[in-house]
């Protein structure tokens, strides 16, 4: 679900882009000295929502309904959740239904922080898993689905200004994602080679303990997603100078 933050950041970055060169007209320009800069950013993101749902080819932004992630692997060697798992063809439904709670910008320190809330995400993928969760052996491969509700997320970008030619560009050095899920309902099909009874029991167990399971997996997910989005945001930042992205 941290993937969602990628989107939000994408939206956020795009909302900064000036209409000067060949930039699309649906981007609202925000001026860095606007005393209502935060409101401007929130506003431009609201305007972008339908474009994000469809995708924005000009910015290499794919459709986010659903958002697609080819593959994520998690290798937890030790601890109460010691599993090797792989998820392919991840589809995330619902990320465009976000609400921006707060925007914080410190231009001098090159820091941006966005807090947002997402009411509901439905995620499906094809999983392969083996290991132990809270002492219980787990093994299987098949469809993995889940509903995640009441999600609070924070995206933090820490960057630097880099001179190229006559222009200053922004470069993101650290990209951090943090999310907290209010509730999760998950389902792993075909656990234990399709053994129905064992599979049902394990699904009950996982859902009873979802908070614990999620907290073990969370850092890996956050890092994976953050690195994808760091690359992505730098693609945009390296293309347009700061004066074009955030004009005076
Ligand atoms: C998620 O919610 C949808 C409908 O809202 C439901 O059809 C589906 O079974 C749910 N999935 C899980 C794993 O609970």
Can you describe this structure in just a few lines?
With 248 residues, this protein is of the alpha+beta class.
Keywords:
binds 2-acetamido-2-deoxy-beta-D-glucopyranose, 6-stranded antiparallel beta sheet, 248 residues, alpha+beta, Bactericidal permeability-increasing protein, domain 1
Written overview of the protein:
The protein is α+β, with helices and mostly antiparallel strands. The protein has one domain (2-245): TULIP domain (Bactericidal permeability-increasing protein, domain 1). It has 5 helices and 6 strands. The chain has helices at 3-14, 37-54, 196-208, 210-237, 242-245, and strands at 67-75, 81-93, 99-106, 111-133, 136-164, 167-188. Strands 1, 2, 3, 4, 5 and 6 form a 6-stranded antiparallel beta sheet that branches. A hairpin with a 5-residue loop joins strand 1 (67-75) and strand 2. The longest helix has 28 residues, at 210-237. The protein is elongated, with a radius of gyration of 20 Å. The mean pLDDT is 83. The chain binds 2-acetamido-2-deoxy-beta-D-glucopyranose (NAG). Residues 122, 145-147, 185-187 line the site of 2-acetamido-2-deoxy-beta-D-glucopyranose (NAG). The site of 2-acetamido-2-deoxy-beta-D-glucopyranose has 7 residues, from strand 5 and strand 6.
Q: Please identify, by name, the CATH architecture.
A: Super Roll
Share in helix? 25-40%
Shape: elongated
Total beta-strand segments:
6
What percentage of the residues does DSSP assign to strands (E)?
Answer: 35-45%
Regions with pLDDT < 50 over 5+ consecutive residues?
none
């Amino acid at each position: 679900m941290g993937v969602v933050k990628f989107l939000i950041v994408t939206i956020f970055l795009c909302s900064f882009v000036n209409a000067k060169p060949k930039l699309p007209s649906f981007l609202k320009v925000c001026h860095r000295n606007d005393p209502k800069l935060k409101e401007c950013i929130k506003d431009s993101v609201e305007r972008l929502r339908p474009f994000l749902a469809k995708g924005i080819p000009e910015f290499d932004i794919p459709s986010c309904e659903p958002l697609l992630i080819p593959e994520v692997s998690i290798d937890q060697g030790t601890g109460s959740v010691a599993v090797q798992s792989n998820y392919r063809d991840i589809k995330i439904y619902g990320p465009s239904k976000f609400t921006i709670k707060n925007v914080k910008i410190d231009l001098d320190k090159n820091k941006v922080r966005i807090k947002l809330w997402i009411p509901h995400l439905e995620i499906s993928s094809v999983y392969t898993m083996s290991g132990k969760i809270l002492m219980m052996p787990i093994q299987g491969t098949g469809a993995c689905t889940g509903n995640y509700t009441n999600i609070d997320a924070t995206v933090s970008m820490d960057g630097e200004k880099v001179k190229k030619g006559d222009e200053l560009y922004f470069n993101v050095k650290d990209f951090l994602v943090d999310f907290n899920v209010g509730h999760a309902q998950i389902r792993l099909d075909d656990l234990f080679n399709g053994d129905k009874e064992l599979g049902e029991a394990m699904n009950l167990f996982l859902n009873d303990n979802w908070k614990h399971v999620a907290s073990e997996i969370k850092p890996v997910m956050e890092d994976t997603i953050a690195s994808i989005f760091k690359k992505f945001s730098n693609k945009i930042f390296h293309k347009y100078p700061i004066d074009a992205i955030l004009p005076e």
